[in-house]
UniProtKB/TrEMBL annotation:
A biological process from GO: biotin biosynthetic process
Organism, as annotated: Metabacillus arenae
Gene Ontology molecular-function annotations: 6-carboxyhexanoate-CoA ligase activity; ATP binding; magnesium ion binding
Family: Belongs to the BioW family.
Pfam families, sorted: BioW
Protein name from the UniProt record: 6-carboxyhexanoate--CoA ligase
UniProt gene name: bioW
Species lineage: Bacteria, Bacillati, Bacillota, Bacilli, Bacillales
EC number per UniProt: 6.2.1.14
Positions with biased composition (Basic and acidic residues): 13-27
Disordered: annotated segments: 1-28
Catalysed reactions, as listed in the record: heptanedioate + ATP + CoA = 6-carboxyhexanoyl-CoA + AMP + diphosphate
Needed co-factor(s): Mg(2+)
């Protein structure tokens, strides 16, 4: 990996127009690629954007750019799966885990009061753990975490060791959660997909690891959620720059 030049390859797709026109978000994706593998990366993201369960897009943008900053290597968060019987019990568990991660209960409840309002935002929202208020200034765009990946060979080795299915969805989510949790300003993340066919979500933090919860919504629900619970006393501009610009490879090494 050292000495190789890498490129950030990104895709976003929408229905009935572009995102700037306020139309329906369909899919997005992020990969890091060498120059020789860019065609493979573009094709993988193209396939993802064309076959998403949220619908058939009529707008898609795929772009790549050279990465000049040093790539940071981070270990994947430890994964634990929590089986629950219903979305209600899943959400109750999520609240409990957020509190264990260090979020005050009043801020958790304030966040839940705002979830419906923010469900259509394309990226993540940032909430201050002290006030429960939103502190990013990105409006309906949100904060998009970018420039991150996990080499397939290393991911597959990790999955075999941990006896976890080699699911691209798990890989993608764990990469993002690992990068977000690595920054000291992040206290916890709460996430579930806007995919109507996927009801598993997670709470993640450096303290708790990546805690999958098998039901956080009902099948057919297209409302997603991605909230970063942040220590608002940190330098927010530096934090957002890390999320958007710092290149990160997740890399597992057997101990």
């Amino acid at each position: 990996m050292q000495g190789e030049k890498y490129y950030s390859v990104r895709m976003r797709s929408a229905k009935e127009g572009s995102h700037e026109q306020g139309e329906k978000h369909i899919s997005g994706g992020e990969l890091l690629s060498t120059y020789n593998d860019i065609k493979h990366a573009v094709n993988a993201l193209l396939e993802k954007g064309l076959t998403h369960s949220r619908g058939r897009p009529d707008f898609m943008q795929i772009q790549f750019e050279c990465i000049n900053d040093p790539i940071k290597l981070v270990n994947p968060l430890q994964v634990m799966t929590n089986e629950v019987e219903s979305a209600g019990k899943g959400q109750a568990l999520a609240r409990k885990l957020l509190e264990q991660a260090g979020i005050p209960r009043k801020s958790i409840e304030k966040a839940y009061d705002q979830i419906t309002e923010y469900s259509g935002i394309r990226g993540a929202i940032m909430l201050d753990i002290h006030s429960g208020e939103r502190i990013d200034d990105r409006k309906e765009k949100g904060v998009r975490v970018s420039r991150m990946d996990w080499l397939d060979t290393n991911f597959e080795k990790w999955a075999d060791h941990c006896q976890i299915p080699q699911n691209p969805r798990v890989k993608e989510a764990l990469v993002l959660a690992t990068k977000v949790s690595e920054h000291p300003a992040t206290i916890a993340e709460l996430c579930w997909s806007d995919d109507p066919d996927y009801i598993t979500g997670y709470v993640a933090s450096k303290k708790l690891g990546y805690r999958r919860i098998t039901k956080l919504k009902e099948f057919g629900d297209e409302q997603g959620c991605r909230i970063f619970f942040v220590n608002g006393l940190e330098d927010l501009n530096s934090y957002i720059h890390y999320l958007e610009k710092q290149p990160v490879f997740v890399q597992w090494e057997e101990k």
